[in-house]
Amino acid sequence: MTTYTCPKGHTSTTDDFCDECGARIGGAGMNTVPMPTVPIPTATPAAAAPSGAPCPNCGAPRAGSSRFCEDCGYDHNTGKVPALTVPLPVVTPAAGGQWTATIAVDRKYFEENAIEGVEFPADAPAREVVLPAPQVRIGRRSGSKGTSPEIDLADSDPGASHNHALLTLSVDGVWLVSDLGSTNGTYLNAEQQALSAGETRQLKDGDEVHVGAWTTITLHSPTSA
């Protein structure tokens, strides 16, 4: 490649005007200096993180030879999604006029999901919790992923994603629900179409939010009987 020297001493790759200062070059006294060729180093591609076959239940990549899927709880050894084995405690909500939610297993929602190889936890008790403002995250706790949701379904519903859905109290005092890109979807009441990732819907007293394999979360306003 040929370069040109402008009247101000700059090196330019164009022969009419300096591509650094804009001064006109041209004329018989124009100097040319051959530009040396510099080899461009070839970048070494980064090694891909090892992973196994995708989860047959939700399609998430398997981390090495780990037994359980990090997203849906699928057991690669037995070919099943683990069912509830330890009953959840019933939590009595504190007084003070706050919104509450009843978290329960829902046979109708479970049968609509039709997940093979999973046993419905018929003896699991419902629990009632207070919804602390301004946000309540629904999901499953995970030390490796750093998730610690306020409504934790790690021991009760393996079909819930680690970051499944979010309840948010708006400035108008209305609770909203948003899907966080969950694997199995977030459904509202009897709707057949799941919320799309990031979609937000307004909630009212008595509305049901369905998540995971069988969990239904029913909201109660402070004035509900």
What attributes characterize this protein structure?
five-stranded antiparallel β-sheet, 24% strand, 2 domains, Tumour Suppressor Smad4, 225 residues, mainly beta, five-stranded mixed β-sheet
- In round numbers, the mean pLDDT is 76
Q: What is the gyration radius calculated from CA atoms?
A: 30 Å
CATH class type of the largest domain: Mainly Beta
Low-pLDDT sequence parts: 28-38, 43-50, 83-95
Distance between termini?
84 Å
Counting helices, strands and paired strands, the structural category is mainly beta
Quick one: overall form?
A: elongated
Order of helices and strands: EEEEHEEEEEEEEE
What is the number of independent domains? 2
CATH topology of the largest domain: Tumour Suppressor Smad4
What's the topology here?
Blueprint: E1 2-5, E2 11-12, E3 32-34, E4 100-105, H1 107-113, E5 127-130, E6 135-139, E7 151-152, E8 163-169, E9 175-179, E10 187-188, E11 200-202, E12 208-211, E13 215-220
Parallel strand pairs: 6-7
Antiparallel strand pairs: 1-2, 1-3, 4-5, 4-13, 6-8, 8-9, 9-11, 10-12, 12-13
3D architecture notes:
The protein is mainly beta. The chain folds into two domains: 1-37, no CATH class; 100-220, Tumour Suppressor Smad4, CATH 2.60.200. The protein is 3% helix and 24% strand. The chain is built from one helix and 13 strands; from the N terminus they run ββββαβββββββββ. It has one helix at residues 107-113, and strands at 2-5, 11-12, 32-34, 100-105, 127-130, 135-139, 151-152, 163-169, 175-179, 187-188, 200-202, 208-211, 215-220. The strands form three sheets. The chain has a five-stranded antiparallel β-sheet with strand order 5-4-13-12-10. A five-stranded mixed β-sheet has the order 7-6-8-9-11, with no helix packed on it. A hairpin with a 3-residue loop joins β12 (208-211) and β13 (215-220). The model is unreliable at 28-38, 43-50 and 83-95 (pLDDT under 50).
